[in-house]
Structure formats: structure tokens, C-alpha cells
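Figure 6 in text form: structure in, sequence out.
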């Protein structure tokens, strides 16, 4: 989750670059400033957290929150009045195309 300043052109460029980097690294946008990434375990989550720390723009605020599969599955998600299942479940380990 992040809140990055976008008042000046360099700030907008930094925020856009950070969002694009997240997408390139396999993160999925849940909301505009909230991105998700499934990790196999704590070690992989720690690696991803360190990578985010290296890419955080000079200004703004970034939070990394680790949530277990069970906690994520228990989350209530609503689109309007309709309740949805959170996320699309565990991704495939290997995809060939």
C-alpha cells in the first residue's frame, strides 16, 4: 500500500515508475495504491519486501503487509452490494506460453 506525492512532474514520474515496476515484478493492482503478490512462503515474502525497499521513491509512504492464505481467504470483498471471493486463489507455480 502506498501514498506517493504527485504534485510535481518529477513526483508523478516517480509514482508512475514505481507502479509500473510493481506490475513488471508480478504484483497485481487491487486498488489504485494497493497491490498484491502471492508468495510461496515467508522467505519469498521477505525477498519481495527487500526489493520494494530498494525501489521506494524518495518521497511518500509505502507499507508492506504480509497476510497468510487463510487470512486472505477470510477477507470480505464487496463490489457494490454483491459479495465476491477475494482474489483468484493460488496462482499456478509454472506457466508456459
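Output sequence:
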Amino acid at each position: 500500500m502506498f501514498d506517493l506525492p504527485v504534485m510535481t512532474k518529477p513526483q508523478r514520474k516517480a509514482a508512475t515508475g514505481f507502479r509500473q515496476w510493481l506490475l513488471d515484478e508480478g504484483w497485481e493492482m487491487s486498488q489504485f495504491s494497493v497491490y498484491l503478490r502471492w508468495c510461496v512462503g515467508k522467505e519469498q515474502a521477505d525477498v519481495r519486501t527487500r526489493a520494494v525497499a530498494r525501489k521506494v521513491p524518495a518521497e511518500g509512504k509505502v507499507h508492506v503487509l504480509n497476510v497468510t492464505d487463510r487470512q486472505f481467504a477470510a477477507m470480505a470483498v464487496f463490489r457494490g452490494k454483491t459479495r465476491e471471493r477475494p482474489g483468484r486463489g493460488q496462482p499456478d507455480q509454472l506457466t508456459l506460453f
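Caption detail: The CA atoms of residues 57 and 90 lie 30 Å apart.
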